[in-house]
Each structure stands twice: as C-alpha cells, then as structure tokens.
Request: fold
Amino acid sequence: MAKSKKKAETIFLVCEETGQYNYSLKRKPGGEKLRLKKYNASLRKHTWHVEKKK
Reply:
C-alpha cells in the first residue's frame, strides 16, 4: 500500500486583539495550533496571532 501524502493547507493568522486576518501561510495539517507574536499594522505594535482556517 502506498502512503497518502498530506497536502499543504492554507491557514490564516488572526490578531487576538482586533480579530483581523493579517497573515496567511501554508503548512501541513496536524500538529498543534500556531500562536505567534506578529506585527499588526493597524495598531502599530506586535500582538499575539492565532491560527485559524477560513
């Protein structure tokens, strides 16, 4: 039997403070959800962003 390859899926990083979709990236499914500190241009500071599928 051949193994099935997991395709990369597009995820979005959503700001916890404003709820805006600021970043998108591709990654393989599985694993734990991302939580990164990224720059938010509307607030002009770094805020926490969490992974969300659209």
Summary: The radius of gyration is 14 Å. Residues 9-52 form a domain with the Rubrerythrin, domain 2 fold (CATH 2.20.28.120). The mean pLDDT is 91. The CA atoms of residues 7 and 21 lie 22 Å apart.
